[in-house]
Amino acid sequence: MAKFVYSFNEGSKDMKYVLGGKGANLAEMTKIGLPVPFGFTVTTDACKDYIAKGNVIDPAIIDEVYEHLAELEQVMEKKFGDIDNPLLVSVRSGAPFSMPGMMDTILNLGLNDDAVKGLAAKTGNERFAYDSYRRFIQMFGDVVMEVSKSKFDAIFDGQKKKAGVEYDVDLTAEDLKEVIKGYKELYKNELGVDFPQEPKEQLLAAIQAVFRSWNNERAILYRKMERIPDDLGTAVNVQAMVFGNSGDDSGTGVAFTRSPVNGEKAIFGEFLVNAQGEDVVAGIRTPKPISEMAESFPDVYKDFVKTAEILEKHYKDMQDMEFTVENNKLFMLQTRNGKRTAAAAVKVAVDLVEEGLIDKETAVMRVDPEAIDQLLHPSFDADAEKQAVKIAKGLPASPGAAFGKIYFTAADAEAAAANGDKVILVREETSPEDLAGMVAAQGILTARGGMTSHAAVVARGMGKCCVAGCSAIHVSEADKTITVDGKTYKEGDFISLNGSTGDVYEGEIATVAPELSGDFALIMSWADGIRTLRVRTNADTPADAKQAIEFGAEGIGLCRTEHMFFEEERIPAIRRMIVADTEEERRAALDGLLPYQKGDFKGIYEVMEERPVTIRLLDPPLHEFLPKTEADMKELSDKYGIPMEKLEKANIDLHEFNPMLGHRGCRLAVTYPEIAEMQTRAIIEAAIEVKEEKGFDIVPEIMIPLTVMDTEMKYVRDIVVATAEKCKEEKGSDIKYLVGTMIETPRGALTADQIAEYAEFFSFGTNDLTQMTFGFSRDDTGKIIKVYEEKGIFKDDIFGTLDQDGVGQLVKMACDKGKATRSNIKLGICGEHGGDPRSVEFCYKAGLNYVSCSPYRVPIARLAAAQAVIKNK
Amino acid sequence: MAKFVYSFNEGSKDMKYVLGGKGANLAEMTKIGLPVPFGFTVTTDACKDYIAKGNVIDPAIIDEVYEHLAELEQVMEKKFGDIDNPLLVSVRSGAPFSMPGMMDTILNLGLNDDAVKGLAAKTGNERFAYDSYRRFIQMFGDVVMEVSKSKFDAIFDGQKKKAGVEYDVDLTAEDLKEVIKGYKELYKNELGVDFPQEPKEQLLAAIQAVFRSWNNERAILYRKMERIPDDLGTAVNVQAMVFGNSGDDSGTGVAFTRSPVNGEKAIFGEFLVNAQGEDVVAGIRTPKPISEMAESFPDVYKDFVKTAEILEKHYKDMQDMEFTVENNKLFMLQTRNGKRTAAAAVKVAVDLVEEGLIDKETAVMRVDPEAIDQLLHPSFDADAEKQAVKIAKGLPASPGAAFGKIYFTAADAEAAAANGDKVILVREETSPEDLAGMVAAQGILTARGGMTSHAAVVARGMGKCCVAGCSAIHVSEADKTITVDGKTYKEGDFISLNGSTGDVYEGEIATVAPELSGDFALIMSWADGIRTLRVRTNADTPADAKQAIEFGAEGIGLCRTEHMFFEEERIPAIRRMIVADTEEERRAALDGLLPYQKGDFKGIYEVMEERPVTIRLLDPPLHEFLPKTEADMKELSDKYGIPMEKLEKANIDLHEFNPMLGHRGCRLAVTYPEIAEMQTRAIIEAAIEVKEEKGFDIVPEIMIPLTVMDTEMKYVRDIVVATAEKCKEEKGSDIKYLVGTMIETPRGALTADQIAEYAEFFSFGTNDLTQMTFGFSRDDTGKIIKVYEEKGIFKDDIFGTLDQDGVGQLVKMACDKGKATRSNIKLGICGEHGGDPRSVEFCYKAGLNYVSCSPYRVPIARLAAAQAVIKNK
Question: What pTM does this model have?
Answer without folding.
Answer: 0.83
